[in-house]
Design brief:
eight-stranded mixed sheet; alpha/beta; Rossmann fold; globular; binds magnesium ion; binds adenosine-5'-triphosphate
Length: about 270
């Protein structure tokens, strides 16, 4: 069964794109087939995988969503690019900002991305959707298409207000279009080892948003090498394979795979 995970947080610059790349390629390194979907008109994911001029790409997420809206047939693998580290990418560029507007007047406007992925995801074990820093219609589409949400949070920033808004949006999506949507976990990113702040933030998150809000055991350290990878169009495993950030993203990858296995066991138990 394919697992679709949306990486979302309407706060900008918290590590959504970086985590999409390094979790995605981490899964590939464990033999999984993975599609990354760039759902941000800034095209940062596309850029950081080496397509440095996303606006020059002719086929993107906006193209395929447009075809779903107008009921045009899609070609096999239409718009999907392949990266040297073994991962597929559906890119995005500035055209996605027009999609935000055109979705408003579209029928079944929340389910366009889900309809697109229904067929396409059959070729993959995991689909990771890198959301833009807003809770607009494209992000709602991603949450509607997803099995779970992974929420990166910058460790030195108290996320209380933004987190309530995000959790409200997730609840709304659950009520309206995707009752089975789960929270995969909150991931602390850019953790500066010299402080205890990340422990405090884990504590506050659990205190304010309930024990059910799982915080990943893995934390991603602040590391200059991580910031440098995007210019190189490579993952952290290629760029700095023996560094702390590569080890952390490898640990996160294993945690995500373990979560999936535990859930499968649980579901098998329920259906017996
Ligand atoms: N662990 C880290 N250590 C140091 N720098 C990092 C780390 N993770 C990400 N960065 C850098 O921080 C910036 C923001 O990261 P990223 O683009 O992944 O965030 P984002 O949530 O996708 O941002 P946006 O909301 O704009 O889409 C980037 O320049 C990235 O290279
Ligand atoms: Mg981003």
């Amino acid at each position: 069964m394919t697992k679709v995970i949306a990486l979302a947080n309407q706060k900008g610059g918290v590590g959504k794109t970086t985590t999409t790349v390094n979790l995605g390629i981490g899964l590939v390194r464990h033999g999984k087939k993975v599609l990354l979907v760039d759902a941000d008109a800034q095209g940062n994911l596309t850029d950081s995988l080496g397509w440095h001029e996303p606006d020059n790409l002719h086929k993107t997420l906006a193209t395929v969503m447009g075809k779903i809206i107008t009921d045009e047939p899609l070609q096999k693998r239409e718009g999907i690019l392949h990266h040297a580290e073994g991962i597929d990418l559906l890119p995005a560029n500035i055209e996605l900002s027009a999609m935000e507007v055109s979705l408003v007047n579209t029928m079944s406007r929340e389910t366009i991305m889900r309809n697109y992925l229904e067929e396409v995801k059959k070729d993959y074990d995991y689909v990771l959707i890198d959301c833009m820093p807003s809770l607009g219609m494209v992000t709602v589409n991603a949450l509607t298409a997803a099995d779970s949400v992974l929420i990166p949070v910058q460790a030195h920033y108290l996320p209380a207000k933004g987190m309530s808004q995000l959790l409200q949006t997730i609840s709304r999506v659950k009520r309206n279009t995707n009752p089975d949507l789960r929270i995969e976990g909150v991931l602390l990113t850019m953790v500066d080892g010299r402080t205890n702040l990340s422990k405090d933030i884990s504590f506050i998150l659990r205190r304010d948003f309930g024990d059910k809000l799982k915080v990943f055991k893995t934390e991603i350290p602040m590391a200059v090498k991580v910031a440098e990878t995007s210019a190189e169009g490579k993952s952290i495993y290629e760029y700095d394979k023996s560094g702390r950030a590569a080890a952390a993203y490898e640990a996160l990858t294993k945690e995500v795979m373990r979560n999936g296995k535990q859930r499968e066991k649980h579901q098998a138990g329920l259906s017996r």
